[in-house]
Design goal:
This protein has 184 residues and is of the alpha+beta class. It has a single domain, classed as archaeoglobus fulgidus dsm 4304 fold (2-Layer Sandwich). It has six helices and nine strands, in the order E-E-E-H-E-E-E-H-E-H-H-E-E-H-H. The strands form two sheets. The protein has a seven-stranded mixed sheet, sandwiched between helices. The longest helix is centred in the C-terminal third of the chain and has 17 residues. The radius of gyration is 15 Å and the shape is globular. It starts with 5 loop residues before the first strand and ends with a helix.
């Protein structure tokens, strides 16, 4: 990864009906190079469009990858990775950090009717979750825009040795929590 290449890390925090989204632009050399904030509805279906809006508001041609902290933000507001990949240019990689049996049973228990069916369909349409070893840590990635090997290289480029999170995602989570605390 070239030192001037940039990643956009997107994470969220919520304490009410609205979730704060934070986007952190960081160089591969580790320098913070931009911040953007947005929101989505807790339990809603608007997170994909909110992420698209963040990327478009930044209007940065130097972002080489978008890292998203998971696929079910803001209480099962499921990211539509295909829609995201069609709407923005850089590859999109969803990164999670714990093994899981999946979210189907939890979605089924939390929602009813068309709302449940729509979420389950969106969740089941996601790309396969793949375990990878990054900087000595197990992580799980999903991507629609690049192969698993390239996605793993991109995540690795932004994950410092000894850190259990890609730095843009770690800082985005901190920023989202800080903004959420101020406005909650």
């Amino acid at each position: 990864m070239k030192p001037g290449s940039r990643a956009l890390g997107i994470a969220e925090s919520y304490t009410g009906e609205s979730s704060t989204l934070a986007g952190i632009v960081q160089t591969a050399a580790g320098r913070l190079d931009g911040i953007v904030f947005g929101s989505c509805t807790v339990g809603g279906t608007d997170v994909t469009q909110s992420i698209i809006d963040l990327v478009h508001r930044l209007d940065r041609e130097d972002i080489r990858v978008v890292l998203v902290a998971g696929v079910a933000l803001a209480w099962y507001n499921i990211v539509d990775m295909d829609e995201l990949a069609k709407a923005i240019d850089p590859p999109v990689i969803a990164v999670t950090f714990e093994e899981s049996e999946g979210l189907s049973a939890a979605i089924d228990a939390a929602f009813e009717g068309d709302d449940r069916d729509d979420r389950l369909a969106r969740y089941r349409s996601l790309p396969k979750r793949t375990a990878v070893e990054i900087a000595g840590q197990s992580m799980f990635i999903r991507t629609t825009s690049t192969g698993t090997g390239r996605a793993s290289e991109l995540v690795d480029a932004y994950t410092p040795v000894g850190n259990n999170r890609p730095e843009p995602l770690r800082v985005a989570k901190l920023a989202a929590r800080a903004v959420d605390e101020v406005y909650s």
